[in-house]
Amino acid sequence: MALGNYQFLKYKRDSGKKNTLRKIEIYSQAISEERLAKSDEEKAISEERLAKSDKSAAISPFDSLNIVNEAVYKCRDLINEPASYLTATVFSKEIEKIGKDCGAKVEVMNKKKLEALQMGGILGVNKGSYEPPHLR
Fold it and tell me: For residues 71 and 84, what is the distance between their CA atoms, to the nearest angstrom?
């Protein structure tokens, strides 16, 4: 339901028709408060792993779903951008920003680096563009 609620309204003049999904309630016998609640020992282990930079250890299944939803929304935003806006340069900057936000290392290779790595296919395709090549 959350993925179906996506809308790309960046270029819409009247964004008054926004989807209004605010809350999703899940009812299941497989998921209970007792099962989701962690024991004191499990909480301590999770906190210890989090302190050691293993952030995935302390993420609940619902938080994981929210992270996936946000990532899908960001991908859909990039896909919906017109090609005249989302050039290789702009796309590289967007990817760098996303990487910085989530703590990932992103390397953007410019034309000089692509030539050094002998990536002729990418450079050949780029000859049809006025924009310089970038590869993430």
Answer: 23
